[in-house]
Specification:
Layout (H helix, E strand, L loop, with lengths): L13 H7 L14 H5 L1 E7 L9 E5 L2 H11 L3 E12 L6 E6 L9
Antiparallel strand pairs: 1-2, 1-3, 3-4
């Protein structure tokens, strides 16, 4: 009978699999992504009216946090405007159009 015994391995169930598997830690921190890299030149404005018509801008705010707080206190919405311009890329065989962020935020008054 000694030769007939096979090696006994513990049966895997959901409990042992979870306990032995390495846990992936979740990070509770958000990555801070610079707004200008993905959105171009971003500006924040308070809305003049709360109608369904064309939005009109009122006062400009420096940061989105400031715009959110102002929106909370006044009950008005805030607008996020990003500014881009089209640029032709003629360096390759096939010309391409790409977008370029406008960096001088005080150049174009709204």
């Amino acid at each position: 009978m000694k030769g007939d015994l096979a090696s006994v391995e513990p049966a895997l169930d959901s409990k042992t699999t979870r306990e032995t598997a390495p846990e992936r830690g979740r990070k509770n921190r958000r990555r801070s992504v610079p707004v200008s890299s993905s959105w171009g030149s971003v500006r924040f404005f308070m809305s003049k009216s709360d109608s369904d018509r064309l939005p009109t801008v009122d006062q400009e705010l420096q940061t989105e946090a400031e715009a959110m707080l102002e929106s909370l206190t006044t009950g008005k919405s805030y607008l996020v405007i990003s500014e881009w311009k089209g640029v032709a890329d003629l360096s390759k065989k096939v010309p391409q159009i790409r977008k370029e962020s406008v960096t001088n935020k005080k150049a174009t008054p709204l």
